[in-house]
Structure formats: structure tokens, C-alpha cells
Batch of 3 targets.
Target 1
Amino acid sequence: MTKQAFNKLAVPAISRRVIDDWPVKEAGLPPRIVNACRRHGIDTVSALRALPDEDLMRMRSLGNRSLAEVQDFFGFCRQLERGRVRFESAPALLQSFLPETSLAMLIERYALRTRGGFLTPGATLDAIGQQFGLTRERVRQQIAGIHTELGTRLAQTCLTPLVSWYADFMRTRDGVADTEDLEAVPFRKWLKGINPCRFLLLLTELQSTIILRGNLFTILAPEILEDIEKIAIRYLHRYPKPQRLSDVIAAFEEKGWFRQWPQFQPRLVMKTIENSRLIGATQEDYYFLFPEGAVYVLATLISEFPRPVRSRVLINRFNEEVKPVSRRDEAYLTELLTRSSIFVRGRDRTYRLRK
């Protein structure tokens, strides 16, 4: 795909026959119209298309507004049939399916406007409720409704080319991408300030082409990543201290893994184990298992201090030593310090190595 192609997202033409086969309840029509069609036994878009306007207007709870919405729906479908649907930007795509308030909620919930690639949680339901003057339950219902809207046949048809953009990007990276990789997507300009990592996180919940495994997005079969993780864990389990990346890769070469999968490069192994919740990685590309290897790293860091060190200082040093995906919170690391017999805790919450 050329750079010029990223200026606009063009939705491939779709035949009327395909559209007519869509169930009305999944097509992308407003709930009021869907419910009215259900009561009158109108199950498909084809049946709705064949219904005269006068008959539609006779349905209970429908009126001129509903008639206009049905006409708008079929007007959009005609543009789809002719291959004329294009979106100038990610916000424009979302605005085509969501009202202004719903889009604002979605942006807050998924932190779509944040910078950086970390998969930190977006705003809570309570925080969104306070911002929009709604109860927590009402916000939950609104978010669920947004997912339903973006999961309709109409919306999914328009989102599919975007998913393909992401998938094409991953194919240049052995079929995987972590949060750091996604900062380099070639369609950043088209996203118009939408975080590429957070947007993909939303897309993984709406379709099944791309999945999120730990902190790694992938288009590969989960079994391949599971196999990589198992081999790495078995190798690292034999050593108490962190192992160099080159040594881990050598273990895969000895097992003939790259001969079995010649289309993949060592980068796939590195990205998979680096983003595993069971495996940690230092900034210098040394890999270890949690929790045993993390204890070794903590012990090494303590030995660098001439006197007992406070837990907060030690925890900060640990998280500086490892890569962002391997960082752990204070509760987890404090438990390691407390439970391991090689550490001695002082009364002032300092730690030293047992002699």
C-alpha cells in the first residue's frame, strides 16, 4: 500500500445482494426501526427495502423521522454499492456512526487522544459519569450501546479496511506489533490525533482478525506465540539469573524452531517473550522469569547500595532497570521482597541481603 493510499480510507464496493442478506437487527438501523420491523416480521434488509414508505409509516412508533433514517440508511448503502464511501480521517469515520456525545465518551473510555503507546486504562465509568452528568450504570449502558453500534454490519464493513491497514503493517513485522511498534504506523496523519495503539485496542474488541495477547497485537495463530513462550520458559527455568537475548535465540535455533517456521525471524521470538506476563526483560536485553528472575534482579540491585535501601527506592530502580512492559507495581515487588528468604527487612522498611 502506497503512502498516497493512506490519505483516505476507501471502503471496497459491496454488492446489493450481500447488503440485502443482512439481518435488520444487525444492519445498523436505529433500535426503534429494528423493533418495529421485528414486530412486523421484517427480518432482512431485502424485506425492508421492498416495503413501501406508506406501510413503514403505518408501523406503531414510526414516523417521518424514522422514514428519513431508513432513507439515509439505503442512501449510504447505495454509496457502498458504488464503492464511493471514503473517510478523510479516523474521527470522520467514527462520527459517521456515533453522535457527538457518544464519540466523546468513547474517546474518554479508551483514552484515544492520549500520547504514547502504553495500554494504560482509560477513564473509569464513574469519571465519565461525572464529566457528562450521568450515573455509572447509565454510562455503562451508553458504552455498551456504542459497541453495538460499531459492531453492526454497516460499521464493520467500513472498519474492515482500517483493520486491513493495521494487518498489513504487522505483516512487515513478522505478524506482531507491540505498543512501541504502533507509534510508527504509516497512517498516523490519517488518524488525526487518535492514538494508533488505543484505536487498535478498540478494534480488537470489535472484530477477530487482530487479537491482543498480553501486550502484543498479532494476526498470527495463538498457537505459534504459545509455542514460543513455552520454549523460552523452559530454557529460562534452567537459570536463576537473566539470560542474554542471543542465548535465548540460540535455544530456538537448537530446537530447529526457525527451520519449522522459516517465514519468521528472531524478532518474533524477542517481541513475544518480551511482552509475556511470565517473562521479564532488562533494558540491556537480558531475559528472566517471574518471580524467580525478578528476585535475582532485586538482589543484584540491593548489592549496589553500600547500606540497607528503602523499598520505594529499590522498586523504582527495578522499574528503571527493566523494559516498560516488564515493570511491576509496588505491591507485587514488595511481596517478592517480603516472601524471599534472601532479603532481610529492617524496622524502617529498608532491605538488605541476608549474609
Target 2
Amino acid sequence: MTKVDQGSGSPARSILESKAARARAMDPVEKFLAGPRLFDMVRERMLCGIRDRHPQWGEAAVEAEFGRQMAAIRAREEQGLYTPVPQDAIDDGPTGAP
């Protein structure tokens, strides 16, 4: 992948600044609803990429690969966020309750 010049006067920088300004201008409801729309757009692009790389695959295989890729992304992003709880702590129930 090539690096895009994002100097102060570059077109790429201008586009990023324009997108950031539009995002800042959104009200909270618009921001909330933008998340699912963005996910849907990215999902479709990922599916198109998988279909392009594997034209012989059926739709079920494409969806399965999408699920595999999403699981890998989630595992990578969540790495180190959660700590396993010992089984005895689960068996004893909550502690510190009044």
C-alpha cells in the first residue's frame, strides 16, 4: 500500500479535514445512526473483495469468510482487554455484596 501525502496543503488532507468538520457538525442522533451505516458500507466492500479474490465461491462461503475475518479482527482488537475469571470465583457467586 502506498502512503498518501497528507501535508498541510494536500488534497488528501483537505478531504480529511472536510470529513472531520462534517462529523463534528452532526447532532448526537446522526452520529449514533452513522455507525451502522458505516458498518454496512464496509461490510459490502469486504464481501466484494472476498468475491473478487474467490470468484468460484458461493454466497455461503463468502459469508463464512467474512465471519472468519470479522472474528479475527475482533480477537486482535480485544486482545488483552479481558481477564479470565477463575472458576472458583464463578462458583462462589458475587463477593462484597451487603
Target 3
Amino acid sequence: MSGNKASWVMVCKGLARMILHSRDLRRKMLLQLVIVLVIISGLGAWPLANWLGDSVWLFLVWWGFCMLYGVMIILLALYDMASVVKEERRKHFEE
């Protein structure tokens, strides 16, 4: 009976594939991720600046997380760019 149930890992992989293979979903996801990055960067720069300034470790963890999050967004944008180039080349060769 448990062989028929999908695990969380399989569900996450399926959602990731669906997002990565659809240009519209990729672009919507990129926009949402960039908005979240702007929000967390703004929070770290203004309202939480005093709290983050109290501890070097808090500062490094917060901005390290922001940096890694930004790098992941850049990697997704590069994937989107390469995917669009591949799709357009395929369309060009089919014509």
C-alpha cells in the first residue's frame, strides 16, 4: 500500500521539474524571488540594522544568507537564459 504513495522528495522533484520546464513559471518564480530578496535586504539595512550591528555573528549570518539567496537567484536566471537560447535555437532549426 505504501508503494503507491508519493514521498515529499518525489513531490518536490516534480514541482521543480514543472517550474524549470515552463518559461512562464520560471519568470514568475524569478520575480517573486527577487521581491523577497529586496525585502530581506531592506529589512537588514534599516529596521534590523541595530540588532544586526550588536553581534558580528548575526551580521555575518544574515548577510551571508542574503548573499547565498542572491547567488541562487542568479543561477536560476542563468538557467532561464540558457533554456530560452536552447528553445529559440530549436525553433530556428525546425523552420
